[in-house]
Amino acid sequence: MSFKRSLGLAALVGILSSSAMTAVAEGDLTIRPKKLPDLVLGTEDNRYHLSEKRYEMVTGQSYKLKIISSGQTEYAFVAPEFFPTIYLRKIEAGDMEIKAMALTELEFEQEGEAEIYFVPVKPGEYEFYAEGFEEKGMIGVFSVK
């Protein structure tokens, strides 16, 4: 089989397979990241307050989420089932921009903030929480459609 013919066959197979497949991503990566409401951990009045309990997202859409620690106690923000299902673009904290392949935890030892830029890849319902404070109400859900 000639190179030209095999190239044409590969193109035809690609066209047929792509037209038979249905796109499942809802988002549009050509637009700026959608800003989610800030997630604030604790307040002066209630160190176990969580400002948001649910975030609604779609696959394929770029998002940014600012997580703010009130500094009322040490907080370890985790989402063990969610973090492996996202494409992590970057994390901004203080004067630093962190490029990483994966995220397991954001630990705040005092007052501060971090902003996560990411794209959800897999639909589902994923818990997030301040580790050790789940029974105090510091738990929420990332819902990805």
Structure commentary:
- The protein is mostly beta strands.
- The protein has one domain (34-144): Sandwich (Immunoglobulin-like).
- It has one helix at residues 3-20, and strands at residues 34-35, 39-41, 54-57, 63-69, 75-78, 86-93, 96-98, 106-108, 112-120, 124-130, 139-144.
- Strands 1, 2, 4, 6, 7 and 9 form a six-stranded mixed sheet that branches. A five-stranded mixed sheet has the order 3-11-10-5-8, with no helix packed on it.
- The longest helix is centred in the N-terminal third of the chain and has 18 residues, at 3-20.
- Mean pLDDT is 86; it is low at 3-21.
Write the layout of secondary structure elements.
Layout: H1 3-20, E1 34-35, E2 39-41, E3 54-57, E4 63-69, E5 75-78, E6 86-93, E7 96-98, E8 106-108, E9 112-120, E10 124-130, E11 139-144
Parallel strand pairs: 1-4, 2-4, 3-11
Antiparallel strand pairs: 4-9, 5-8, 5-10, 6-7, 6-9, 10-11
The number of distinct structural domains comes to: 1
Based on CA atoms alone, the radius of gyration comes out at 20 Å
Q: Under the CATH scheme, which architecture would be assigned?
A: Sandwich
CATH topology value: Immunoglobulin-like
Distance between the termini: 45 Å
The poorly predicted ranges are 3-21
Mean pLDDT: 86
Oligomeric form: single chain
Structural class: mainly beta
Number of helices: 1
Percent in helix:
10-25%
Count of extended strands: 11
General shape: globular
CATH superfamily: Cupredoxins -  blue copper proteins
> Can you summarize the main beta sheet?
6 strands, mixed
Text of the CATH class: Mainly Beta
Relative strand content:
35-45%
Keywords: Signal
Organism: Neptunomonas qingdaonensis
Signal peptide: 1-22
Protein name: Copper-binding protein
